[in-house]
Design goal:
This protein has 157 residues and is an alpha+beta fold. It has one domain (24-154). The protein has helices at residues 41-49, 72-76, 110-119, 124-135, 143-154, and strands at residues 24-28, 57-61, 97-99, 105-107. The strands form two sheets. The chain has a two-stranded antiparallel sheet with strand order 1-2. Strand 3 and strand 4 (105-107) form a beta hairpin. The N and C termini lie far apart (36 Å).
Protein backbone atom coordinates (compact mmCIF):
# COMPACT_ATOMS: atom_id res chain seq x y z
CA UNK A 1 0.00 0.00 0.00
CA UNK A 2 2.72 2.47 0.95
CA UNK A 3 4.74 1.67 -2.17
CA UNK A 4 1.69 2.44 -4.32
CA UNK A 5 0.95 5.66 -2.47
CA UNK A 6 -2.37 4.25 -1.20
CA UNK A 7 -3.90 4.30 -4.69
CA UNK A 8 -5.47 1.51 -6.76
CA UNK A 9 -3.02 0.02 -9.23
CA UNK A 10 -5.58 0.37 -12.05
CA UNK A 11 -8.00 3.28 -11.63
CA UNK A 12 -5.76 5.23 -9.19
CA UNK A 13 -8.56 5.82 -6.74
CA UNK A 14 -7.42 6.39 -3.18
CA UNK A 15 -7.54 3.18 -1.13
CA UNK A 16 -6.64 2.21 2.41
CA UNK A 17 -9.10 4.63 3.97
CA UNK A 18 -11.37 1.97 5.44
CA UNK A 19 -10.32 -0.51 8.14
CA UNK A 20 -10.16 -4.29 7.75
CA UNK A 21 -9.34 -4.26 4.02
CA UNK A 22 -12.92 -3.42 3.06
CA UNK A 23 -11.90 -1.06 0.24
CA UNK A 24 -8.89 -2.93 -1.18
CA UNK A 25 -7.43 -6.32 -1.92
CA UNK A 26 -4.35 -7.90 -3.47
CA UNK A 27 -4.18 -8.40 -7.25
CA UNK A 28 -2.05 -10.88 -9.15
CA UNK A 29 -1.31 -8.90 -12.31
CA UNK A 30 -0.47 -12.12 -14.13
CA UNK A 31 -3.40 -14.22 -12.93
CA UNK A 32 -3.04 -17.28 -10.73
CA UNK A 33 -5.53 -19.12 -12.94
CA UNK A 34 -4.97 -17.76 -16.46
CA UNK A 35 -7.49 -18.32 -19.22
CA UNK A 36 -6.02 -21.20 -21.24
CA UNK A 37 -8.24 -20.22 -24.19
CA UNK A 38 -6.29 -16.95 -24.52
CA UNK A 39 -2.77 -18.04 -23.59
CA UNK A 40 -0.46 -20.79 -24.73
CA UNK A 41 0.47 -23.57 -22.26
CA UNK A 42 3.90 -21.94 -21.85
CA UNK A 43 2.33 -18.54 -21.08
CA UNK A 44 -0.09 -20.16 -18.60
CA UNK A 45 2.87 -21.78 -16.82
CA UNK A 46 4.63 -18.40 -16.74
CA UNK A 47 1.57 -16.81 -15.08
CA UNK A 48 1.23 -19.63 -12.57
CA UNK A 49 4.93 -19.41 -11.72
CA UNK A 50 4.50 -15.71 -10.89
CA UNK A 51 1.88 -16.36 -8.18
CA UNK A 52 4.13 -15.40 -5.28
CA UNK A 53 6.45 -13.07 -7.17
CA UNK A 54 6.35 -9.79 -5.24
CA UNK A 55 6.60 -7.79 -8.49
CA UNK A 56 3.34 -9.44 -9.64
CA UNK A 57 1.32 -8.36 -6.57
CA UNK A 58 -0.57 -5.06 -6.40
CA UNK A 59 -3.23 -3.44 -4.23
CA UNK A 60 -6.48 -2.59 -5.99
CA UNK A 61 -9.82 -1.04 -5.08
CA UNK A 62 -12.88 -3.19 -4.54
CA UNK A 63 -15.20 -0.77 -6.29
CA UNK A 64 -18.27 0.87 -4.84
CA UNK A 65 -20.36 -1.47 -2.73
CA UNK A 66 -22.69 -3.45 -4.95
CA UNK A 67 -20.88 -2.25 -8.08
CA UNK A 68 -17.58 -3.93 -7.21
CA UNK A 69 -17.69 -6.06 -10.38
CA UNK A 70 -17.84 -2.88 -12.49
CA UNK A 71 -14.14 -2.07 -12.90
CA UNK A 72 -10.51 -2.81 -12.08
CA UNK A 73 -9.54 -6.32 -11.01
CA UNK A 74 -13.13 -7.52 -10.61
CA UNK A 75 -13.74 -6.66 -14.24
CA UNK A 76 -10.34 -7.96 -15.38
CA UNK A 77 -10.85 -11.32 -13.69
CA UNK A 78 -8.40 -13.81 -15.25
CA UNK A 79 -7.86 -11.87 -18.47
CA UNK A 80 -4.22 -11.39 -19.35
CA UNK A 81 -2.35 -10.94 -22.60
CA UNK A 82 1.43 -10.74 -22.75
CA UNK A 83 1.23 -8.52 -25.85
CA UNK A 84 -1.32 -6.02 -24.52
CA UNK A 85 -0.84 -5.78 -20.75
CA UNK A 86 1.61 -3.41 -19.17
CA UNK A 87 2.27 -3.78 -15.46
CA UNK A 88 1.04 -0.95 -13.23
CA UNK A 89 4.66 -0.66 -12.02
CA UNK A 90 6.04 -0.13 -15.54
CA UNK A 91 6.83 3.57 -16.20
CA UNK A 92 5.27 3.28 -19.70
CA UNK A 93 1.81 2.95 -18.11
CA UNK A 94 1.58 6.72 -17.59
CA UNK A 95 1.80 7.33 -21.35
CA UNK A 96 -1.12 5.02 -22.22
CA UNK A 97 -3.98 7.20 -21.01
CA UNK A 98 -5.26 10.75 -21.05
CA UNK A 99 -8.13 12.39 -19.20
CA UNK A 100 -10.86 14.88 -19.95
CA UNK A 101 -12.09 17.56 -17.56
CA UNK A 102 -15.42 15.70 -17.43
CA UNK A 103 -13.71 12.68 -15.84
CA UNK A 104 -13.49 10.58 -18.98
CA UNK A 105 -10.40 8.54 -19.65
CA UNK A 106 -9.11 7.95 -23.16
CA UNK A 107 -6.42 5.63 -24.40
CA UNK A 108 -3.69 7.10 -26.55
CA UNK A 109 -2.59 3.82 -28.16
CA UNK A 110 -3.97 0.32 -28.89
CA UNK A 111 -2.48 -1.26 -25.75
CA UNK A 112 -4.15 1.39 -23.60
CA UNK A 113 -7.45 0.77 -25.40
CA UNK A 114 -7.35 -2.96 -24.63
CA UNK A 115 -6.40 -2.43 -21.00
CA UNK A 116 -9.01 0.30 -20.45
CA UNK A 117 -11.67 -1.91 -22.00
CA UNK A 118 -10.82 -5.04 -20.00
CA UNK A 119 -10.58 -3.08 -16.75
CA UNK A 120 -13.58 -0.83 -17.56
CA UNK A 121 -11.58 2.21 -16.54
CA UNK A 122 -14.11 4.54 -18.12
CA UNK A 123 -17.12 3.29 -16.16
CA UNK A 124 -19.75 5.84 -15.22
CA UNK A 125 -18.82 5.57 -11.54
CA UNK A 126 -15.12 6.24 -12.21
CA UNK A 127 -15.93 9.12 -14.59
CA UNK A 128 -18.08 10.79 -11.97
CA UNK A 129 -15.48 10.29 -9.26
CA UNK A 130 -12.68 11.68 -11.46
CA UNK A 131 -14.81 14.70 -12.32
CA UNK A 132 -15.54 15.32 -8.65
CA UNK A 133 -11.84 14.91 -7.85
CA UNK A 134 -10.89 17.39 -10.53
CA UNK A 135 -13.56 19.81 -9.31
CA UNK A 136 -12.04 19.57 -5.85
CA UNK A 137 -8.32 19.51 -6.70
CA UNK A 138 -7.38 19.81 -3.04
CA UNK A 139 -8.84 16.35 -2.43
CA UNK A 140 -6.67 14.56 -4.99
CA UNK A 141 -8.19 11.12 -5.68
CA UNK A 142 -6.95 10.38 -9.20
CA UNK A 143 -3.36 11.61 -9.21
CA UNK A 144 -2.41 11.03 -12.86
CA UNK A 145 -5.65 12.55 -14.08
CA UNK A 146 -5.08 15.75 -12.11
CA UNK A 147 -1.45 16.03 -13.23
CA UNK A 148 -2.40 15.32 -16.86
CA UNK A 149 -5.23 17.85 -16.93
CA UNK A 150 -3.15 20.52 -15.26
CA UNK A 151 -0.36 20.02 -17.80
CA UNK A 152 -2.66 19.85 -20.83
CA UNK A 153 -5.15 22.58 -19.97
CA UNK A 154 -3.19 25.04 -17.85
CA UNK A 155 0.21 24.88 -19.54
CA UNK A 156 -1.35 25.65 -22.94
CA UNK A 157 -3.21 28.69 -21.57
Amino acid sequence: MREQGFICCYCEKRIGQQPFLTDRDIEHFMPRHPDSRLLSPKECMQCEAAQLDYANLFAFCKGEGGESADHCNHKKDNWFCFASCISPADPRIRRLFGFGLDGTMFAVDPIGQKMASHLNLNSYVLQEQRKAAFDMVLDVEFCSMIVYCLREYLMDA
